[in-house]
Amino acid sequence: MNTVPTHELAISITRLSKSYGEFNVLKSISLHVRRGEKVVLCGPSGSGKSTLIRCVNRLEKHDSGDIRVDGIELTDDVRHIRMVRADVGMVFQHFNLFPHMTVLENCTLAPVSVRGLKRKEAEARATEMLERVRVTGHAHKYPSQLSGGQQQRVAIARALCMSPTIMLLDEPTSALDPEMVREVLETLTLLVQDGMTMLCVTHEMGFAKAVADRILFMDQGEIVEDNAPADFFAQPKTDRAKKFLNQMIHK
After folding, report:
1. Averaged over 139-154, what is the pLDDT?
2. For 38-56, what is each residue's pLDDT tens digit?
3. pLDDT by residue (tens digit) across 219-234?
4. CATH assignment of the domain containing 67
5. Which strands sit side by side in the sheet containing 214-219, from one edge to the other?
6. How far is Cα 47 from Cα 220, in angstroms, rounded to an integer?
7. Nearest to 168 by CA among 61, 94, 74, 57
8. pLDDT band at 29, cuts 50/70/90?
9. How many CB atoms neighbour CB 70 within 10 A?
10. Where is the ABC transporter domain (predicted)?
């Protein structure tokens, strides 16, 4: 049972369920994330992690249960969906940059069209965020001219240009070559130091151990363990988590 005061919650999920046909991908999930908290979701492929995170900004429509982001309930109400998406940044596995736009254009599109910023103001904000994720000098390039690691850092900068209060990250390094993973994880590690609320799906256990306040282990559509990082890695509570960690260590 959640005892956290409502005003302290960035994300509140209660009895959330989602199915694709006969397959129950999420089974009555309840999860509460405090403002400023960094929560990592991990678990085997197909356990429902990405579906859960995509439900938080309505990229997936849940079947039953309740999702509230900054107190706004996510239903079919388009106004509520827009309000949530305006304040929640999302970083995907495959960057999702617009290939026909330059880096700068990718970063200014939403602030101008959604936030109503003037172009000069949006460009100044974009330049600041590109510097923050260390891709200065690439503003006028197209995504195809960048490495995978650079593209993902641009995607992070694009999300930050909306001044989000919450960041959702869905396997942000899974599409990268191993040598590019480190640069993206270093960027994300810097971000968490700013006090932003973060919900991140990842298999990068070193990153999870370093930045998470809590680690949630999912399996077969359920959260089967909710633990502090030190305890999760030293003494996982469940056999399923132990097996998962053993497999990750011996990859």
Report:
1. 94
2. 999 999 999 999 999 999 9
3. 999 999 999 999 999 9
4. 3.40.50.300
5. 88-91, 166-170, 197-201, 38-42, 214-219, 222-227
6. 5
7. 57
8. very high
9. 17
10. 11-245
Residue 178 — very low, low, confident or very high, per pLDDT cuts 50/70/90?
Answer: confident
| Residue listed under structure tokens 């940044």 | 89
Output phi, psi for 40, to 5 deg.
Answer: -105, 130
In this predicted structure, the answer to whether residue 2 has a pLDDT above a threshold of 70 is no
Q: How far apart are CA 235 and CA 1, in angstroms?
A: 24
In a domain, 1, yes or no: no
Q: Is 12 inside any structural domain? A: yes
Question: Which structural domain range is residue 178 located in?
Answer: 6-249
In a domain, 73, yes or no: yes
Q: What are the Cα distances from residue 251, in Å, to 146, 204, 205?
A: 29, 12, 12
Task: Please provide the average confidence, as pLDDT, over all residues in the chain.
Answer: 91
How many Cβ atoms are within 10 Å of 145's Cβ, its own excluded? 12
Q: What is the DSSP string of the chain?
A: ---S-GGGEEEEEEEEEEEETTEEEEEEEEEEEETT-EEEEE-STTSSHHHHHHHTTTSS--SEEEEEETTEE-SS-HHHHHHHHHHEEEE-TT----TTS-HHHHHHHHHHHTS---HHHHHHHHHHHHHHTT-TT-TTS-GGGS-HHHHHHHHHHHHHTT--SEEEEESTTTTS-HHHHHHHHHHHHHHHTTT-EEEEE-S-HHHHHHH-SEEEEEETTEEEEEE-HHHHHHS-SSHHHHHHHHHHHT-
